[in-house]
Design a protein that fits this description.
- There is one protein chain.
- The protein is mainly α.
- It contains two helices and no strands.
- It has helices at residues 15-37, 48-77.
Length: 78
């Protein structure tokens, strides 16, 4: 049986596949960190708009933390 896929994914082991894989794992780490450390797995906000604001604030916090960590590592290695 032949299945038709509307999207053609890069072959495993190619540079394109490695790039896609790295992007996907990076996103998984980001969301895993949000669920583990920023309580994004059980949001208790009344209404969708308040939940969106909560998630936006958490994402800003995660990004700010990552930027500060990168600057600290750069300062240490320099």
């Amino acid at each position: 049986m032949l299945f038709y896929h509307s999207h053609f994914y890069p072959l495993r082991g190619t540079e394109a596949w490695n790039t896609l894989y790295n992007e996907r794992t990076s996103a998984e780490r980001f969301f895993g960190d949000g669920k583990e450390n920023y309580a994004l797995n059980n949001i208790r906000a009344a209404g969708l708009d308040k939940a969106k604001v909560f998630i936006d604030i958490a994402c800003i916090s995660i990004l700010t933390t990552r930027i500060a960590e990168a600057k600290q590592l750069k300062k240490i290695s320099a």
